[in-house]
Amino acid sequence: MPEGYSPILELQGITKSFGGVEALRGVDFALYPGEIHGLVGENGAGKSTLMKIIAGVHTEFSGRFLIDGQETHFRSARDAHAAGIAMVHQELSVAPDLTVAENVFLGNQPTNRFGLVQWRRMAREAGEQLARFGIDVDPMSRLGDLPIGLQQLIEIARVLFSGARIVILDEPTSALSPPEVERLFMTLRRLREEGTGIVFISHFIEDILRVSDTVTVFRNGRKVAETAASATSKGALIEAMIGRGGEALEHSYTDDLMLPRPSDSSVVLKVDQLSLARSLQDVSFEARAGEVLGIYGFMGCGQQELSRILFGKLKPDSGRLAVDGTPKAFASTAAARRAGVALVPESRRAMLFHQEPVYKNISISILDRISALLLKPTQERDIAKRQVEQLQIRPPVVGLDLGMLSGGNQQKVALAKWLTYPPKLLVLCEPTRGMDVGAKNDVINIVRDLRARGLAIIVLSTEPETVLSLADRILVLKRGAVVREFKNERVSKDRLLEAA
Amino acid sequence: MASSETALAAGHKARGLAPFVRSQMRNIAPFLTLIFLSAFFAFASPSFATLDNLGNILTQVSVTGIIAVGLTFVILCAEIDLSIASIANVTGIAVAYFTLQESYVNIASVPLPGAAAILLSILLCALLGLVNALGLTVIGIPSFIMTLAMMQIAAGISALLVRGQIAYKVPDLIATLGSGSIGGIPWIVIVAAVMLLGGHLVLTYTRFGRYVYMVGGNREAAEYSGLNVKLILGAVMVISAVCSGIGGMLGVAHFGSAQQNEFDTYLLDSIAAVVVGGTSLFGGRGGIGNTIVGLFVLGVLNNGLDHVNIDSFLKILIRGLILLAALIINVYAQRLREKAAE
């Protein structure tokens, strides 16, 4: 940490709550000019909330906020921007149909005195700026034609070169290839020399350690550690993140958990060398009857794409998959369903009909088993009633519009769709995300019951707890490749994080 | 116009009432519009509210009704079919093309037995519908653009078949259904009623009908439920084309001639009937019942304006304004429903 300087940004005792839940509790944070400040913590630890306060997105909070030693209060993101603060969000926010140059200058294209855009000047300056970043592309090419990683670099370049003194990068490396990450780091180091203050948030602790000067660890809305990057290690940071022996977290799986001996029951799904553009590389695994296979990885590690391929929504570039020993190339989700595969995606909205009654939501996937031509509403309702009773869906009224149910109950309906005629393979994405403890336990019990009935189940999650609470065997997915398999051995949250 | 004011007023009133009324807005508003229009014309003209005139209205909306059956399926899926009128036209021309014409008709027709002519014509419209379906589902062209192209293609085939001439003869069965009547009731009204009823039964009581509503309600969810969304979308495009074709054949018989651009007004009329009736442009809401009310609103309006003394050029403007009002109500009803659901 550069001593003797005064911080360009200083936060003191920041507390922020959302509807009674404290997301930040008395956090102090300082950023110095010419410093790269790494930020780590689990999902929901408070990193993003703090950054949104700095970027002027959240304006209601308590605590002191100083820029250059002056107390400041932003009323909007525009104020923050005017004060020289810029943020690169995790999701791409580029205009793919515009040229590279237009994207670099988005919102402030150089114009002549008639207000017309000076294309030649814009192209030249954009080219110069990108060259400083080591990006060699034709500034007049369409941005959407470039690889995703390059698009992300260009978006980062736009923010870095906007003249901001404080730059916040939220998970900038998840879509980048190793040489692209290298180029990004080079540029960050150069900006540091020019005196820019940089906040770098990432799940990839190696990346944080390589580029940061200072690392701050968040846990449960508090700052639990701040240290020089050179004085710490990945293991120490993970320990601080999940808080071994620290505050008692409910059910945090910080202790070791023994995975059972691998099942030798029949192989339901065999996946062989599955690859998809930048998302998946040579992914191979098996899922067996009566077994829950957990697949853990950070956001953007390829889980989503993998689940879509298994259900016939996406087609892989190469690789094979077989269900019950029969090779399959699903032409549609309908084909996957007929082959005995079922998927519950991470977003409830994506698989439920909010304006339709509960029973129609439950029966839609099995309608061809109930009726050949004519609908049989009485039978549909009976089936739905049975599911509502079994899964304890509240309120137990099958004629109610789905939109009237709470989130947890909607999630149960999403599961219920597949349970009357159980599939051979059930793929669950983030099955317990955003649920209260009671609903979580209900879902865990449902999944265990299904396993006992002999289904092969795959649980994909970015939350270690979800995988640990459900899985018999765990694969760790990192940047689209399987990097570790845990089976018949001790596993814990920090070992999972260590591997990812 | 006047009718839209009632409908909007009804919309405002609904805010204070139970959520049920709000959620049913799209069904109530068109019905109120119909009652208001009928009452207005009944007062304005003594010749409007007669049994004879009811018969006229029914006959006048029959062709539109037959075409609108298929279009209801399409709009329920949140798609659109702009080729309906052109496909009706080309199918009507085809059935005449395959029929022996009088010697003075200068068309290179290919006379066939009646049954074969009808079958071939239906095959033709089904084929055009299939092209729409493939363009939409396999290639991924938005239905708005795909059917716009089909509108031109079908018009082009029509032009090539008749080359600016007019044909008069159609197979006997088509002639009877299009222009004959039984017990004082025109066959064309009966055909329209049967097709509307059939469409209603399919949508309400069959598995396919449920799929149509679900695909329209949330296409992504339908796919994640393992439905073959492309197959369902393709099917509704074919259904729409076949309904248009049947409407076209009977229409030709009804008008007594087959020629180019004969059905141009039916594109707007059919879309208007479905939308004025309250079927959601966003898909998943509405049905044949709504389309029937929409047909009557249009029929009463068109017919009623003839009974009162009004500038015939103003009629077009009035119809446009009524359609605009219906669109506003349609979008507004969707919002009300979403609010009620929250």
Residue share in β-strands of chain A: 25-35%
Let me know the average pLDDT of chain B: 88
Largest sheet features of chain A: 6 strands, mixed
The domain count of chain A comes to: 2
Described by its quaternary structure, the protein is heterodimer
| Cα shape of chain A | globular
Strand arrangement across the biggest beta sheet of chain A: 6-7-8-3-9-10
- Rg of chain A, nearest Å: 25 Å
Taking all Cα atoms into account, the compactness measure Rg of chain B is 20 Å
> Distance between termini of chain A?
28 Å
Q: What's the helix count of chain B?
A: 15
**Helix and strand sequence of chain B:** HHHHHHHHEEHHHHHHH
Structural domains of chain B: how many:
1
SSE layout and pairing:
The complex is a heterodimer of chains A (500) and B (342).
Chain A: E1 9-18, E2 21-31, E3 36-40, H1 47-54, E4 62-67, E5 70-71, H2 77-82, E6 85-88, H3 100-104, H4 119-132, H5 148-160, E7 166-170, H6 178-193, E8 197-201, H7 205-211, E9 214-219, E10 222-228, H8 234-242, E11 257-258, E12 267-276, E13 280-288, E14 291-296, H9 303-310, E15 318-323, E16 326-328, H10 333-338, E17 341-344, H11 358-363, H12 367-370, H13 377-390, H14 407-416, E18 425-429, H15 437-452, E19 456-461, H16 464-470, E20 473-478, E21 481-486, E22 490-491, H17 493-499
Parallel strand pairs in A: 3-8, 3-9, 6-7, 7-8, 14-19, 14-20, 17-18, 18-19
Antiparallel strand pairs in A: 1-2, 1-4, 4-5, 9-10, 11-22, 12-13, 12-15, 15-16, 20-21
Helix pairs in contact in A: 8-17
Chain B: H1 2-14, H2 19-23, H3 25-44, H4 51-76, H5 84-97, H6 114-139, H7 143-162, H8 172-179, E1 181-182, E2 185-186, H9 187-205, H10 207-217, H11 219-224, H12 229-255, H13 264-276, H14 288-307, H15 312-341
Antiparallel strand pairs in B: 1-2
Helix pairs in contact in B: 1-3, 1-15, 3-14, 3-15, 4-9, 4-12, 4-13, 4-14, 5-6, 5-7, 5-12, 5-13, 6-7, 6-12, 8-12, 9-10, 10-12, 13-14
